[in-house]
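S.,

Sequence below, as promised.
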Amino acid sequence: MQKALADKPELATAERVGAVRRRTLALCEPLTPEDMMVQSCAEASPAKWHLAHTTWFFESFVLREFLPGYKALNEDFAWLFNSYYETFSQFPEKRLRSSFSRPGLDEILRYREHVDAAMERLLETDPPAEALRRIELGANHEEQHQELLLTDILHAFFTNPLRPRYREKGNEGTREQGQGTSGFSGFDGGLREIGAKGEGFCFDNELGRHRVWLEPYALANRLVTCGEFAQFMADGGYSRAELWLSAGWDAVKRNGWRAPLYWTEQDGEWGVFTLRGSMPLSEIADLPVSQVSYFEADAYARWSGCRLPTEFEWEAAAEGAPIDGSLLDAGRLMPAPADALVHDQGITQRYGDCWEWTASAYLGYPGFRPLEGTLGEYNGKFMSGQMVLRGGSCVTPQAHIRASYRNFFAPETRWQFSGIRLAK
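The prediction came back faster than expected:
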């Protein structure tokens, strides 16, 4: 079987894209049709829209160009489910996605079946290499939306006064409990190569590989915990302007921040809402703090006498390490505590748990060139006003993440599974 996949790359591609498409549907199984209509914040999209848009991507960039005679199920879907590709077609405002009561969920599922069947026909025809490259891009794109789907439904359920659970408690991991000592591991620095090596899939923003000079540095062996962040709060962290960047302090005042997103206080006790429901802070104090903005991460680092790592320091420390941890495949759906005695094990929690804010602005690498045509809008046009995050989260598919992977969000963003690793 392995030789067949090697000799016939279209077979490997078919297997890969089929598994990704099935997982998206599986992630929707706990949801009702009503759940899948909700769009509870500006960053989010309804689950129903995620199902349709990921299908639109394959139809728009693969089938329309590489499958002769392909007929769309509905020509209106070409613009209705476009996200932000200006050179492809017009599209509705993002804030209106929750108002799409039509097409209904049944029709969107038929749309997925229609496109999946056409993809199977294409992959039976010995498609050109460019078609296979775009299908792989589409699979990675859908994996991004799997993560977004879960991130968005967490926010939707948090805004629901009933606070429903996405999953019941259980299957929360088998790591040994205990946060360990928050030590640091030192790195010599020097001239290092950064960026994708050209082995396997990568996004255009991971290219080109280039050299950077790093001064000697140290990274914390684990992520900052909820309990540690609570100490920052108790020490007046959200009321001390000297700890904050100017734009961050403006965000604190404008938004009334006094704790991470999903933290609520009742009768003097804090609780944290997760995909597995609300949990007392006292029970999860050793879990990594999540759903904090870059501004909060930076303020905490300053309060602790440290700083945030650059994305280059992070990648140099992670390159070559095994990709494991509390990722989507583990089924935990929430950050996990670091292993006990972490100070004896060096760097842990590189991958999974929470995306780690870095001190690096999201910019193109030397020689960066976006993809040709409309697909060039995928990443490059967002290289302004964003900060880089590294490492993946508890809802990132394991096959999707790597040392060179660059996520990016505006510094005020809090709805993502984003946390803190200290550097000095």
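Residues 129-159 form the longest helix (31 residues).

Coffee later?
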